[in-house]
Design a protein that fits this description.
Helix content: 40-55%
Oligomer: single chain
Structural class: alpha+beta
Number of helices: 16
Largest sheet: 4 strands, mixed
Strand order of the largest sheet: 5-4-3-6
Strand content: 5-15%
Length: 433
């Protein structure tokens, strides 16, 4: 049976037919697609060897991208023809959501992307999505980054930016592309990039300040529920505070297990950390690795710090305007990266086993988080690891250190895994055979 049944809304419309045939080329293509998907669905992945499971997953991932490209092209054509008018839909994505059982939000996002990819200026992105080179969210990140550029940026610069982002897409996922996209003008048009980013950050911070909110209610069963909206820098600070309090190193084995004896989920441990923060921790008693009142490491020039405009980079990767950094400086110590902070020595050699606070700061700035390839754990949630073990003569210095999340830190010390350090300082682990 065909995957796409005939639609009574449009059966009366004429369709191009193959001369001498009773079915359109589309019927044959959809029939072949349906047959292939049926055969793959009937295939038992459990009966495959490891290498074939990997091949199947890789092929399915690429196929999903290619189908998404077809989907975007089709919905762009539907929008051009206003096919939703046949049922009185206000917008194409409303019509599509009703037909497909997608939510309006999902249909809207895909429709906007499809319409954008239909524009000649995004032809390369559309082509790479259609041939499976790009993933759907990568394509969305690239288009949104280019469309978000200031109006004064010309078409040539936009084309250069899109080409550069397509190049970055070979090594970065959609999340990485979004971050790169915010600063892509620095690479293709540095004369306008810094000013544009500073203005964008100031606009974001202004909107965030205007939309701050907090709500909480009691459900009458001994629990309170709430939600909040705060600037990203404040959210990053709160996350780091709770991660420090939830750190397993601060708790006993019994603390980390739930009522059934299993391990507590990260959500549960973060919730308990929030309770601890409220009940027991005054601001001055917070762990030194977290909180606005703790050390803030800012990478920016003195000129930017004192000037009207500029961009600051915190040690967890958060970017903020110079004005925001100056405000934080009123309540927090700022360590300039180039100085290592108050003359602290970053390389302590063999004089101590544990990394110092200054060394942890340096590792966080260099690594940005867990150095295991594909891991997104931030620096605040990582351990400092000796590449050359201290017990075997390895020095406690930044050159011999790296950040690893608790999971990958365990793998680094597990003899069952072989570790490879790549040229970009990323680490991969492979189970020994």
């Amino acid at each position: 049976m065909s995957a796409v049944p005939a639609d009574p809304e449009f059966t009366g419309r004429s369709a191009w037919q193959v001369p001498g045939a009773g079915a359109s080329p589309l019927d044959a293509l959809l029939g072949r697609l349906d047959a292939v998907l049926t055969d793959l669905g009937d295939l038992s992945a459990g009966g495959l060897v490891d290498v074939d499971v990997v091949r199947l997953l890789d092929a399915a991932t690429m196929a999903a991208s290619r189908v998404a490209g077809v989907e975007c092209g089709a919905v762009a054509e539907a929008d051009r023809r206003s096919l939703g008018d046949a049922v009185g839909a206000r917008h194409t994505h409303h019509w599509w959501a009703q037909r497909s059982r997608l939510t309006r939000s999902e249909a809207g996002r895909l429709t906007r992307l499809g319409v954008a990819l239909d524009e000649p200026r995004h032809a390369d992105v559309a082509r790479q999505l259609a041939d499976g080179t790009l993933r759907l969210e990568q394509a969305r990140a690239i288009v949104e980054a280019v469309e978000a550029m200031p109006s004064e940026v010309g078409a040539d610069v936009r084309d250069q930016a899109e080409a550069a982002l397509l190049g970055f897409a070979r090594q970065h996922d959609a999340r990485g592309l979004k971050q790169i996209g915010k600063r892509i003008l620095d690479a293709v048009a540095p004369e306008v990039g810094e000013a544009a980013e500073a203005k964008n950050l100031e606009d974001e911070e202004r909107r965030a300040a205007e939309q701050v909110g907090f709500s909480m209610s009691d459900d009458g069963e001994g629990r309170s529920h709430g939600s909040f909206t705060v600037p990203s820098s404040v959210g990053s600070t709160l996350r780091r505070i709770l991660q420090a309090l939830a750190n397993p190193a601060r708790h006993t084995e019994a603390d980390l297990r739930d009522e059934t004896g299993g391990g507590k989920s990260t959500r549960r441990r973060m919730g308990e950390a929030f309770v601890e923060f409220i009940e027991r921790y005054p601001l001055g008693a917070m762990p030194q690795t977290a909180g606005v009142n703790a050390t803030v490491v800012v990478t920016m020039t003195l000129q930017d710090l004192l000037g009207e405009r500029g961009v600051a980079l915190l040690d967890d990767g958060t970017r903020m305007s110079a004005a925001q950094a100056r405000r934080l400086a009123c309540e927090a110590g700022i360590i300039p990266v180039v100085l290592g902070g108050d003359g602290q020595v970053l390389d302590l050699g063999r004089s101590r086993r544990l990394f110092s606070k200054a060394q942890r700061i340096a590792l966080g700035l260099r690594d940005g988080g867990c150095t295991a390839r594909g891991c997104e754990t931030t620096a605040a949630g990582c351990h400092a690891h000796h590449d050359d073990p201290w017990a075997r003569g390895g020095a406690t210095d930044v050159a011999n250190g790296r950040l690893l999340c608790p999971h990958h830190h365990r793998l680094a010390h597990d003899p069952r895994y072989a570790r490879t350090i790549h040229a970009n300082n990323a680490v991969t682990f492979v189970m020994r055979t």
